[in-house]
Amino acid sequence: MRVLGVDPGLTRCGLGVVDGGSGRAVSCVAVDVVRTPADAALASRLLRIADAVEEWLDRYRPEAVAVERVFSQHNVRTAMGTAQAGGVVALGAARRGLPVVFHTPSEMKAAVTGSGRADKAQVTDMVTRLLGLPEKPSPADAADALGLAICHLWREPMRARLAEAEARAAELAKKHRARLAAAAKQAKGAAR
Amino acid sequence: MRVLGVDPGLTRCGLGVVDGGSGRAVSCVAVDVVRTPADAALASRLLRIADAVEEWLDRYRPEAVAVERVFSQHNVRTAMGTAQAGGVVALGAARRGLPVVFHTPSEMKAAVTGSGRADKAQVTDMVTRLLGLPEKPSPADAADALGLAICHLWREPMRARLAEAEARAAELAKKHRARLAAAAKQAKGAAR
């Protein structure tokens, strides 16, 4: 399975494509950072990011896209820009019918380093080692994008199985309620 | 001039098209609210909003798009969804080369009611009156979208003039600095 990981941002948007198999082995296909000028209009910055993502989807044909989920940041303005960039990335993937999954930074860190509170240097080190890269990806946004793709490859089978189990449980609960209602109705009829 | 105003949101996204002339007269061309189900995947909700906006851009051919700028909200999750929705709206407009301008809620309220702190009911009342609508647009997101379009129509000439004046001042300052540098060089040469 091939996954495009995206660490969204207006100033720097990390993109990383990783291939994974049935085991834990992962390999890096491509990694880069898209930059947009801070003095450009917001809409044109978003367009530039969207175009870059479209190009990557065309060139590398990933089967899924993993995007960092932003909860909050110290700087609200930056957080909004990050969310907007993440939105256009998700849209590009959805237009092609690709599944888009959002992972929090701590989910990614936990998957890659074993600790949800790892710092940037630890994430970069582990990503470099896991992918057997000749040098550390830089800046941190590039390493984060690769980390998100790895996180997705490793978590997705479990996540999908969990979602399936939950759907099955909900279906059973629904059937059970219907059966109870039918029994109650029958009991009411018999009592008359 | 025709403007599409957008009050972005995942649950409800307000869309309003308003025509304006050289004076203050404005008329409503269309208004609606796009809803997306809360249980749908984020990417598919964004796709639905993007598709609706594309359809409106095709059908009504506005010359500019005015989007509400989100700074922060009580609920961070909602704020992020709003920002993501705003991002895909801006992207759709940018893809067609349309100018996209973000206005804060208080800019819109000030333009429409005269007070940046007006409440939802006051905005709805003024929008209804200004556009001579037979009934109040509902829900509030619809009125807000129309308010944003009106705000843009009224503020844009001033905003554009201000931006032009600032660009001219920056150009003059640059020329002035170049002249000073040339004079200093000349003086240095003469002193030798």
TrEMBL record, chains A, B:
Enzyme active site: D7, E68, D141
SUPFAM superfamilies tied to this protein: Ribonuclease H-like
Pfam families for the chain: RuvC
Keyword Cytoplasm in annotation: yes
Biological function: The RuvA-RuvB-RuvC complex processes Holliday junction (HJ) DNA during genetic recombination and DNA repair. Endonuclease that resolves HJ intermediates. Cleaves cruciform DNA by making single-stranded nicks across the HJ at symmetrical positions within the homologous arms, yielding a 5'-phosphate and a 3'-hydroxyl group; requires a central core of homology in the junction. The consensus cleavage sequence is 5'-(A/T)TT(C/G)-3'. Cleavage occurs on the 3'-side of the TT dinucleotide at the point of strand exchange.
PANTHER family listed in its UniProt record: CROSSOVER JUNCTION ENDODEOXYRIBONUCLEASE RUVC
Protein's recorded name: Crossover junction endodeoxyribonuclease RuvC
Taxonomic lineage from the root: Bacteria, Bacillati, Actinomycetota, Actinomycetes, Pseudonocardiales
